[in-house]
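ARCHIVE CARD
Drawer: 12
Card no.: 0347
Subject: one protein chain, sequence and derived structure
Cross-reference: see card 0346
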Amino acid sequence: MSVEPIVLPPGDGRAYDLGPMRGVFKADGPETQDRYCASEWSVEPRQPGPGAHQHDANEELFLVTEGTLWFLVGDQWVEAPAGTFLRIPAGVTHDFA
């Protein structure tokens, strides 16, 4: 793994507009040797998320910073208002909307 710090100002990173969602990847792949991914996501109100999926090799961490999202964790939907933190272990199906 790189020993260099990563410092990005607000808005920096690789941005992808995906319809009602926007993802900004801050660090992943080569910067982290695929050990983790740090990204910022936004989704328009009452719009679907990425669809149910899982990651076999790494866990995923979420912090809701504004509004309320619903997260699918395994087979259960969980309400997540601003301030909610979620840790999704590797191999667990998840989604958000």
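Annotation on reverse: The two ends are 33 Å apart (CA to CA). The chain has a mean pLDDT of 91.
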